[in-house]
Write a structure and sequence with these properties.
This protein has helices at about 5-25, 30-35, 45-75, 80-100, 105-130, 140-150, 155-170, 175-200, 215-230, 230-260, 265-290, 295-315, 320-345, 355-385, 385-390, 395-410, 415. It is mostly helical and about 425 residues long. The protein has one domain (about 5-415): Up-down Bundle (Growth Hormone, Chain: A), CATH 1.20.1250.20. α1 crosses α10 and α6 runs antiparallel to α11. The longest helix is centred in the middle third of the chain and has 30 residues, at about 230-260. It is globular, with a radius of gyration of 21 Å. It starts with 6 loop residues before the first helix and ends in a 19-residue tail after the last helix. Residues about 415-435 have low confidence and may be disordered.
Length: about 425
């Protein structure tokens, strides 16, 4: 049966289309531009990978600290849209200005600012899922977000590739001009796709502030951490998420940096990752549709196992065609594991506290990314071998799988009343009514 998005669901999906352009830029051209700014990077690829890993780690630490607090504040009446707007503006402005940075240190500083703001906007955006759709539609709506995000980001990405080729291969543009254009195109796309949601979003679930909003938010956040001791399903899911999403985020952030350090052709790497986006579109939609018949937890388990083998394969990668194979395999599971994790979590948390819980979700997610990139940086520094650092990520998937199985088997009576692990979609054309 055909699944139709409601108007507000479509606008929510459009933000995924917009912000995915920034994600793709981070994992491809941004690291390539940084490579050309770092003195001596061509002679010592491990030095370049270390710098990039450390900058990414700093960004994730910032988000891990600020995410829960801002998420908690976003649960207060009327606060979610305001916090979302600030994070969106700072992230997009930082992206636009990045193109003017010609010193590698200042480039990294602004990169940390833009990426942190981008990630903080996602904390609020993910919690909006509880407002824009019903619980039984979450799996497919979340999957559509990632799917259209992947394919939609291809348009600005193709434009930026053309700009990069005009610089790197044809010499028509200087590096400075190409950087300015690439980052401006991405920032404009990001903001433009965000406008529909920004104009139409209304916060449906919230808590009332008792006294000063910040004090109320911090008090509520402390209460959520205490609740986790009783909510075993949520706690073990978060532990699992911490480990298995480590590899996912690290591969996204470090793919091009890793390939470049191995001496692979940068244009070929960028095109391979474009293929990842194209493959991810139908894969995310099809596996999202499969969630009507297969319990989402089984899809998550399948994705974790697939990523384990993908990471092992990456250890032995040293040719361009092998990178292309890796790109296709990542595309098959990347969107699904992120979408299913987001919707699975959204269904087991209290909806009126979505911001608080997604703030904690972001701690575990971004904390994992911090650990993964830092691990690669340290191991690469110590051994001088990037492949050994990448290989360490495979262990994270095994640990994550173990915790996730425990989470699935956990039974919390107060949550079982509303958790639906195999939701069915309403007939086509039927709107998602708020519960």
């Amino acid at each position: 049966m055909k699944f139709k998005l409601t108007p507000i669901e479509k606008k929510w999906v459009w933000y995924d289309v917009g912000n995915s352009a920034f994600t793709l830029l981070v994992s491809t051209l941004m690291s390539i531009f940084f490579y050309e700014l770092v003195p001596g990077a061509e002679a010592d690829g491990s030095r370049y990978v270390s710098y990039w890993s450390y900058a990414t780690s700093i960004s994730t630490i910032i988000v891990a600290v600020l995410g829960p607090t801002l998420g908690t504040l976003s649960d207060l009446r009327g606060a979610r849209k305001k916090i979302f707007s600030v994070a969106l503006f700072v992230g997009a402005a930082g992206c636009a200005v990045l193109g003017f940075m010609q010193h590698w240190m200042w480039f990294l500083v602004l990169f940390v600012l833009a990426k942190s703001a981008y990630s903080l906007s996602l904390v609020v955006y993910d919690s909006m899922l509880c407002d824009v759709t019903s619980r039984e539609r979450m799996d497919e709506v979340s999957s559509r977000g990632y799917a259209w995000g992947y394919i939609g980001s291809c348009l600005p990405f193709i434009v930026t590739i053309v700009i990069y080729v005009l610089y790197s291969m044809l010499g028509v543009l200087s590096m400075r001009v190409s950087m300015i254009l690439v980052f401006l195109v991405t920032a404009v796309w990001w903001v433009g796709c965000s406008i529909p949601l920004w104009k139409s979003y209304r916060q449906e679930h919230f808590v009332e502030a008792c006294g000063h909003p910040v004090k109320t938010g911090l008090k509520n956040l402390g209460g959520v951490f205490k609740e986790l001791g009783r909510k075993k399903k949520i706690l073990f899911f978060l532990l699992a998420f911490f480990f298995f999403i480590d590899g996912v985020y690290t591969i996204i952030d470090m793919a091009t940096a890793y390939g470049t350090s191995l001496g692979l052709n940068t244009v070929s790497l960028v095109l391979a990752l474009l293929v990842t986006q194209i493959v991810a579109f139908p894969a995310a939609i099809l596996l999202g549709m499969l969630s009507r018949k297969v319990k989402p937890q089984y899809l998550i388990i399948a994705c974790i196992v697939a990523y384990f083998f993908i990471t092992v394969y990456a250890i032995f990668l040293d040719r361009e065609y092998e990178f292309w194979i890796l790109a296709v395999c990542v595309g098959l599971f990347q969107g699904t594991i992120q979408a299913m994790s987001r919707s699975y979590y959204a269904k087991i948390i209290p909806r009126e506290k979505a911001g608080e819980y997604f703030g904690i979700y972001d701690i575990f997610g971004k904390g994992a990314a911090f650990m993964g990139t830092l691990l690669i940086g340290i191991v690469t520094d110590v051994t001088g071998n990037q492949s050994i650092g990448v290989g360490a990520l495979s262990v994270m998937f095994l640990i994550g799988l173990a915790f996730f199985i425990v989470a699935v088997r956990s039974k919390d009576p107060e949550e079982e009343a509303f958790v639906q692990l195999s939701p069915a979609s309403p007939p086509a054309g039927e709107s998602a009514e708020k519960e």
